[in-house]
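PT: before anyone asks, these are the final sequences, not the draft ones from last week. 695 residues across everything. Please model them as a single complex and drop the result in this thread when it's through.
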Amino acid sequence: MIWDWIPRNQPLILGALGEHVVLSALPVLIGLVLAIPLGWLANRFPAARALLIPAAGVIYTVPSLALFVLLPVILGTKILDPANVVVALAVYTLALLVRAVADALAAVPRSVILSATAMGFRPPRRFLAVELPLAVPVLVAGLRVATVSNISLVSVGALIGVGGLGRLFTDGFERNFPTEVVVGIVLSILLAALADASLIGLGRVAAPWTRVAS
Amino acid sequence: MDSGGVMNLFSWFADPAHWTGPGGIPTRVAEHLSYSGLALLIGVVIAIPVGALIGHTGRGGFLVVGLANALRALPDLGLLILLVLLIGINLVSVQLALLVLAIPPLLAGTYSGVRNVDPAVVDAARGVGMREHQVLLAVELPIALPLVLGGLRTAALQVVATTAIAAYVSYGGLGRYLIDGQREHDYTQMAAGAVLIAVLALVVEGLLASVQRLLGLRTAGNRAKLGGRSRSEFVGVRS
Amino acid sequence: MIEFRGVTKRFADGTVAVRELDLVVDSGAITVLVGPSGCGKTTSLRMVNRMVEPTSGRILIDGEDVSDKDPALLRRRIGYVIQQVGLFPHRSVEHNIATVPLLLGWDRKRARQCAAELMELVGLDASLAKRYPAQLSGGQQQRVGVARALAADPPVLLMDEPFSAVDPVVRESLQDELLRLQSELGKTILFVTHDINEAVKLGEKVAVFRAGGVLAQYDEPGAVLQSPADEFVASFVRRAGS
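LR: through. Structure below.
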């Protein structure tokens, strides 16, 4: 291990880290935004559920590397394009979260929905004021899994030339330089831990009623 | 996907040359399955007894769940490359990387499976005079099987996916089509490799899911417990 | 007052839940719908706030047909209390009670004040205002449910077996509370129960339903007990006092 490599190569390391943050965060946001309406559909219409959930399962099963290559082939874009990683991971996140949203909405007690309707909530407002907030805890759990997975998967993108911390891995391999690889691994884990902790905190803030003992 | 690309893909698969020899599809599939299979086998031998013991005694459970979650943060590519750089490009380094990724879900699955067995059933088993190891082997493990298999599913997928990456460090397996294809700018080969990897993953998943479902039906009495444990999915266990 | 005119409810699978119901519910009184399970009492109740739509017949509140109004707006003017309470777990007690006022567009301060007054009215300690439903006992939750139903001062209150899920001691105190509230507020209350004792205790008028959604007898409690209209009512009220 050559530790002074680290300060000497700060720009390289920080650049890779910055890229990595963007490449992991974007798919989660996109996936989340799309998962809410799709999850609502899957919960509301059994036919939609029968279609969307198995489809999500199939997508989630395909290894990320294969997805990075297959998506551009299907969409007609260039394979070696960073956007592919974002799109592929967004699709991954979507596949994971659709199920989470659908299950979370299904878990809202019927009596709560009933009384909301009986008090005069119309369906859209009821969804935003009652059902969605109650789905938040499960959603946050799904987001944690998705975010941490994404952070790990972005580095696989280095194999098709996309940036992020994965560059430290491929570079370290080609130069036979373990230090660089270790730096990449440590940063990756730290990033994941930070993201996970942030989401836990966010979940507590967004769902204060789950914090109280009953 | 433009029609030219599809045609290229079809003709690539139709080409008999791609089905023979050390670079042929059967060879690569066999390589892929043997690396994955070996890692899974070792993983099962290590993780299931440990998970079962921890689940049975209840001690250390927090560690197991924490570990399974934490290891999701470990970048597969980084781990693989590090081990290869330290140990060299050989079976040990790749298997070690695969094991590090396969063991946590197996551990978590076995642990939660044994933990979720109806305590009344365990109590009854002890009550009729079974010894602890008999309770574990004859009662808890069989009932825990569906969740154990859930852990196996997660581990299998993780291992198949990482084996594809192993091609980068000059190993065999279906990942080679992706890596070689990229170096030779042969995008059809890359696409073909991706298709093969995807199909393999889906087949493995499908098989294990069916086995899990069959086993779940036989222990229908505990299904209510399993249904409530869909949280286990977020520990990394597929169900 | 609430009027049922020839109201029938037939479900998709052919079951007739309510059959040709003609009933006039007096204003300012508690009217109890009582009968065995499956007799259509709950379905009848739920047709008043259009949670269920009648197959035929009309329901009028103070002379106006309920089907002429926007259901959401109609429901904001009717209080609804159910057995499982259905409080919003993600909102504080205070916020739960203020639900309809906020829906009606009251400003927060007025809504919060109203909630505080209601908490006092139903006998809930003010310190519970910021707590979450999960932190309350069953009896306390049901009081919040009642407060929530009364918040916007609706003229009509629908109560569907609201006290059936609590233990007998709490149930009795809740019943007494309801009677006290009614003496102060004078609402038009339609109350559903399967318990003839509860019906007789609370109702100024009692409507006994027979299986199949048929009204067997509608009279003051004393009359129902002493002069049952038929064999069914007679056997049903025989359980009174048990």
